[in-house]
Amino acid sequence: MNVSIETMTGLERRLTITIDGDQFEDQIAARLNDARGKVKIPGFRAGKVPLKEVRRRYGSAIRAEVAGELMQSSFVEAVQQESLTPAGSPKLDVIKMDPGIDFEFTATFEVFPSVELANFDKIAVKRPSAEITAADLDDMIVKLREQNATQEIVERASADGDQITVDFEGMLDGERVESACGEGMAFTLGKGQMIADFDKGVVGLSAGEESTFDAVFPDDYQAEDMQGKTVQFSVKVIDVKETQLPEMNEEFFKKFGIDETTEEAFLSEVKANMTRELDNAIKNQVKQQAMDGLSEIHDFSLPHDVVHREIHVLKDQMMSQFQMPPGQAQQLDLPDALFQDQAEKRVKVGLVVNEIMTSKAMVADPEKIDARLQEIAAPYGEPEQVIEWYRSNPEQMNNIEMAVLEDQVVDLIMEQASIEEVVSNYTDVISGAAIAAPEEASEEASEEATS
Prior knowledge:
By secondary structure, the chain is of the alpha+beta class. It has helices at 21-36, 51-81, 134-147, 196-202, 250-254, 263-297, 304-321, 328-332, 337-359, 366-377, 383-391, 394-416, 426-431, 438-450, and strands at 2-7, 12-19, 91-96, 103-110, 124-129, 150-153, 163-172, 175-176, 182-188, 210-216, 230-244, 418-423. It is 48% helix and 19% strand. The longest helix is centred in the middle third of the chain and has 35 residues, at 263-297.
């Protein structure tokens, strides 16, 4: 087998591979002989069909079949021989495959780029920190109680925070607006679930009461045809429900799987969970900045095939967030450009991280693997069983080892990076506001205020 290599544009390479004609014809002859014993042709006994007849009928198909298989196997041998690392499947084109001459074809493909590592001291990282205060713990307890709250019917006028159920009809210039009508609609007053004027119109009404009022739709309302319009609503209140928070008692504590159902044990468990959440938030934010930094300080060509595959991964991930089956993104014809930048960044960072691991001959630290398993198993009632399940599952252990390796890469980067310590509070660290740029922090604060 003779191989010549040609550099095309960027990462594209073209191999021209020539295989001895006798070798090619021998494989075709062997395949024809094998077919001779299996084919059934009218007028000939099974296994007695003349080779000439088999060649006449099936020769072209078998030649193409052998050529396809030979191209695949020869390509693998050729890239190993030339020490190439294909980044995707090759485009194979036959040049010559007629009888009596050498078989020749080309394989066009992209290779992975050579990555030259930059100095990590160019990377800047903000590392947040915070203490969990008594107020933070109190706020978390309130949230947990609100998540387990019940709605109880009350015989009084509705107020902010109540859940109210209504029938309503909207009229615009004397005509009924179907999109502004509803029956048995339940919503919570003061939570922005309805337009502001509608909330104001029903506050103070009791079950069975009716009211008519005007409501102006906001200029930025999602339905453009209703923006800025004044609609006259007729509303009847079906019922009013008040939020009842659960008592801090044994029944409430049991919902969280705590063995010792005392308030002291419950508070201790909640604080432990908040500590884990805080630690993970800090770790993830530092890791994200480190990876962003790797992307910023490295610049090299990316294999188009790999980026294209990553785009489809991102599409499917987006669809899964909306509980849609994989592949649905392609049916929806989402534009690749929507995911291009993110895909390129992920591919670049992946290649750089792989080069770091390879060049430093990094292996996952067994102690860090054990620590990761302990961390995963900690929230469960029987952590040892969880750890044993992971250890008996090679795929899961491989995922953990890769995660540990990535953490070790981050540790290596942090040894050289420029680090700014940011002391903040629990809420801002968890939300990311502690290290966000001023404009980002302002947007997050605005979202918090309106949520």
